[in-house]
Design goal:
alpha/beta, binds nicotinamide-adenine-dinucleotide, Rossmann fold, 7-stranded parallel beta sheet, single chain, 13% strand
Length: 263
Amino acid sequence: MKTVVITGAASGMGAAVRQRMLADGCRVIGIDLRDADILADLSTPQGRAAAIDAVLSRSGGRIDQLVCCAGLGPHVDPATLVASVNYFGAVALLDGLFEALRQGSDPCAVVVSSNSATLQSWEGSPLRDAYLAGDEAAVRAMVEAAAAAQATRDQAGYIAYASSKHAVTAAARQRAAAWGQASVRLNVVAPGAVETPLLRAGLEDPRYGDAIRDFLPPLGRRAQPEEVAALIAFLCGPQAAYMHGNVVFIDGGLDAVQRPLTF
Ligand SMILES: NC(=O)c1ccc[n+]([C@@H]2O[C@H](COP(=O)([O-])OP(=O)(O)OC[C@H]3O[C@@H](n4cnc5c(N)ncnc54)[C@H](O)[C@@H]3O)[C@@H](O)[C@H]2O)c1
């Protein structure tokens, strides 16, 4: 029986992945702020360390799959929380559970990013550099500065969200060489708009609601969380044995429309 660790397992895509993995006969260890096997706050270094310790003790130091779904949307205040959970919460779990994954059978991890990761260029951005250097204090200071400046005040949440998703995608790809040599596959899923509580809260936010409503893909509908869970289950399964370091969009065609010449 495969042991699968899922962050953000209480809601939305994490809950759908949990259901899917249980249906596939896996043992699931869910991590979340509530309604999970392990209650931990991934916005803080202490919470991340506690989550990792709890997984290691429950699993005996051996897991087969890790799916990082925990995350916050751009509407959440303060915006620094978005950066801390979406990037540092995911990367800490990847690195902290890498050795346990190495002990697993056909091990792999999947990180849930977003197609917001590619909506603007972060080339040469000090914010991106700070994320990738692991400098959480610097990231939080830059996001705080964006939230304080009149010109960017209403966009600070979006800046934190898009930059965190861009950086977490880059961080996963940066690990492809070392993880591949250890035979631990690591892939990224980049959803468009998915019908979850996070999306619904964003739609109700006066700063972001209209932009999210306008974000309709060519297929003319948003995704259901189960559709993303099916992709994640595929990426974790034997038919994806040669997929590694890849970013897979699941967005109803949004990325193709937004960046037809870039792939
Ligand atoms: N819904 C969308 O349209 C969409 C699109 C692209 C990417 N995403 C990303 O998908 C992932 C899942 O989002 P969702 O839409 O299912 O949202 P959701 O709100 O339904 O679920 C997210 C889960 O993460 C948990 N979480 C948040 N902060 C946490 C913390 N500090 N510590 C531990 N757990 C925490 C929440 O409690 C919640 O259960 C997120 O990373 C999100 O950014 C969502």
